[in-house]
Amino acid sequence: MMGDGTYPVLDQRFDGTSLYQLRAVVAGHAANAGLLRQRADDMVMTVHELAVNSVRHGPGHGRLRIWKHHQTVICQVSDDGGPGEPGDWPVQPGHGLWLVRQLADHLIVRSGADGVSSTVSFAACPPGSAPPFRLARSARAGCTLLTVAGQLDLSTCGRLTGMVQLLADEDPGLRLVIDLGDLTFWDSFGIAALLKAQAAVDAVPAAKMIMAALPGQLFQRLRESGLTPRFLLAETADQAADRIAPA
Prior knowledge:
single chain; alpha/beta; Heat Shock Protein 90; Transcription Regulator spoIIAA; 2 domains
């Protein structure tokens, strides 16, 4: 039971022979919780990686619990002790905690005499409340302003990267502000789109890009993933324009 009295909707043991069944169960709970398809896939992959760590680097078995708290799905993978510690888990690209940090909205790892416990969370969209994706272009203080609203995911990320590439191709002195204040949802594809947009601008020597008004959870996700140094960031679009406006 969580501290607020919420009971898990799933409490299941697993070992190396039941990882396939575990993925199927997690997929069902992710869909029932209202996660979009790509986000549900992220949750399945995250839990799988944590479970594999328990099997390979812990005692060989573990326990998965899932809660739905407001509009957040929380998954906890724990074991009852073994030779593995968080620092011993693989962190190379495509493995273990490195991949988990890229996929989950938030990760907490705790270790002690009773083993290792990893808790991840994923934000779900309230039913019927997801606004449509919008991409608006305007000018501000000598800069091009792109306002992104709604959901930046697999189905919409190409519209952002396509627009940024077009702007970079058209203007070698581009000063681009991307305002994310009205962003309501993003997934791993959305973050990849922001990285791709930055790369497109970086490929033009005189161009600059800055992102403004990041939602708190997105900023936290970028920071935990070690991605914040890849971007210029500002609190508001006006501040962003002031920072990169042509002299």
